[in-house]
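Example for tutorial group B:
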């Protein structure tokens, strides 16, 4: 980002929040400590001039976060936005940037077929955060009547050996179960044991699932 953007971000930083947030994303460096709503508001302002994305010298964690949000908020046709997304995904190296970025890609709801095709390579990536990106996009935009079975099938193809990909897949499958329990149940045992257990724990944390279903899942997967 430009020096002006860096200075603006520094002016919004909060040392106490930096200490708190650094514990949530311990592998990330150069955290200024800016609350998410402030980053979103600034991203919406900068999205009016997306040429700023051509500046590549990001230093701070919040600059990466900001870049992803600008991509989500800017006005662009589908292919242009996907080009920026494909360039941004390799920059993701923590769960917070990944999940916030995915949450900003609301254009997906009106372009599901195209984005579905776009996500396919990420489902087969060996990169932990590309795997997570795919899983979080699926749970955010493809847990619906039209895509539920395809979504579950694609989730089983994601490599879940690494922690953040396993947790994202478990989260996604749990969301599928909450909304489509009959479709989802047969898929749970297709995952490795740890991911399946994580899935069941997430399901059991939900108030939207009946207690008897939680009991049966615990008995099968957690005992």
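The residue assignment follows.
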């Amino acid at each position: 980002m430009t020096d002006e953007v860096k200075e603006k971000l520094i002016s919004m930083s909060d040392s106490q929040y930096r200490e708190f947030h650094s514990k949530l994303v311990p592998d990330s460096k150069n955290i200024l400590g800016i609350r998410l709503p402030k980053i979103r508001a600034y991203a919406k302002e900068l999205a009016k001039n997306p040429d700023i994305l051509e500046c590549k010298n990001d230093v701070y964690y919040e600059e990466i976060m900001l870049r992803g949000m600008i991509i989500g908020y800017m006005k662009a046709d589908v292919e242009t936005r996907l080009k920026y997304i494909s360039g941004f995904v390799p920059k993701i190296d923590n769960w917070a940037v990944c999940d916030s970025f995915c949450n900003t890609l609301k254009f997906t709801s009106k372009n599901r077929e195209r984005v579905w095709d776009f996500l396919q390579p990420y489902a087969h990536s060996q990169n932990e955060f590309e795997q997570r990106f795919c899983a979080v996009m699926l749970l955010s935009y493809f847990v619906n009547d039209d895509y539920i079975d395809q979504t579950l099938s694609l989730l089983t193809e994601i490599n879940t050996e690494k922690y953040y990909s396993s947790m994202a897949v478990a989260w996604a499958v749990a969301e599928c179960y909450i909304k489509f329990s009959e479709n989802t149940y047969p898929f749970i045992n297709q995952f490795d044991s740890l991911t399946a257990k994580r899935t069941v724990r997430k399901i059991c944390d939900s108030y939207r699932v009946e207690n008897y279903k939680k009991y049966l899942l615990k008995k099968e997967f957690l005992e």
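The chain has two domains: 1-94, 105-223. Compare this with the pattern of hydrophobic and polar residues in the output above.
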